[in-house]
Amino acid sequence: MSTSTQPKTPKTPNTPSTAQPNAEDAAFAHLSQEEQDALRASVFQRLHPRLYLERYIEEDVRPDGRAFGEWRGVFCNVGSISTAEGSALVRMGDTTVVCGVKAEIAEPELDKEGEGFLVPNLDLPAMCSPKFKPGPPTEEAQVLSERLNQALVTSNFLPLSTLCIHPGKAAWVIYVDATCINYDGNAFDATLLAMVAALRNTKLPQATYNPETHRTTCSRLAPRVPLQLAKSAPVAMSFGIFDGKHVLADPTSFEEPLLEASISVVLGDGGELVSVEQLGSALITTAGEEEAKDEKRDVLEECIQNASRRREAVMKEVFG
């Protein structure tokens, strides 16, 4: 694929050139041809992002070298934060999310005396990407935090009844705080995976409530106990639709603003469907049998099937 937007006119043989070199050639003179091509491609990508992506799509490949349905590699490390009850770091491509779990004791709600609290939150600080600015949580971070909460609650991965210390008197509040330290798209998938891994790594002190003193105490001598998690862990897989024709799995930060629609599928064990979120139309245009006749096809079911296969691979790769 050509990355130069200004084709050079070849000089006539045996005719010395009297024209002065242009500013671009002068600026690139100290670079090798490979470095010049890479720099021109980078400039073209910034100035014409959609056209840049279209040229790759025409060659049936994406800018990072992946096929349309190919996923980025996943790496997970747990227990790296010693000050947290549990922690995990997940890297999905270049998107990196670190998650820590903290716990405190509070009084249960009046209408839910036998349940504790689960409070997930995602922070997208300015340091993780130029698209985010310093200040209060962005709207994107708030929306993603709510989606993460829905995925964890709907899947019942951590039953809130297991967080009760004494009905109506004391219960655990589990704060699951995730921070994106490098953003390259698809933060939802990476963050949910980090939260699941951190919760699986969490251990709490044994707490008891004394009805006479109305106080809750935690034992320092007794061994800590892991959370009573469900066997089925929610895992998210996201897709984007570009140009109404192509389904791109695990979109990057460069691809995300250029997508017409997005689909996020959250699955549990055995292909159990936890939730599906679709923004935009899942219909794509495909060539019909007759010439000059296009057909519309719904790809939602295909995305769910692809997500099911991907989930199995992720669980083996991350959790063994």
Automatic annotation (TrEMBL):
This protein's UniProt keywords: Cytoplasm, Exosome, Nucleus, RNA-binding, rRNA processing
Nucleotide-binding among keywords: no
One of the record's GO cellular component terms: cytoplasmic exosome (RNase complex)
Recorded GO MF terms: mRNA 3'-UTR AU-rich region binding
Composition-biased stretches (Low complexity): 1-18
Family the UniProt entry places it in: Belongs to the RNase PH family.
GO biological process: exonucleolytic trimming to generate mature 3'-end of 5.8S rRNA from tricistronic rRNA transcript (SSU-rRNA, 5.8S rRNA, LSU-rRNA); nuclear mRNA surveillance; nuclear polyadenylation-dependent rRNA catabolic process; rRNA catabolic process; TRAMP-dependent tRNA surveillance pathway; U1 snRNA 3'-end processing; U4 snRNA 3'-end processing; U5 snRNA 3'-end processing
Main location per the UniProt record: cytoplasm
Domain Exoribonuclease phosphorolytic: 71-205, 234-285
Region feature (Disordered): 1-25
Location in the cell: Cytoplasm; Nucleus, Nucleolus
Name of protein: Ribosomal RNA-processing protein 43
PANTHER family assigned: EXOSOME COMPLEX COMPONENT RRP43, EXOSOME COMPLEX EXONUCLEASE RIBOSOMAL RNA PROCESSING PROTEIN
Domain of life according to the entry: Eukaryota
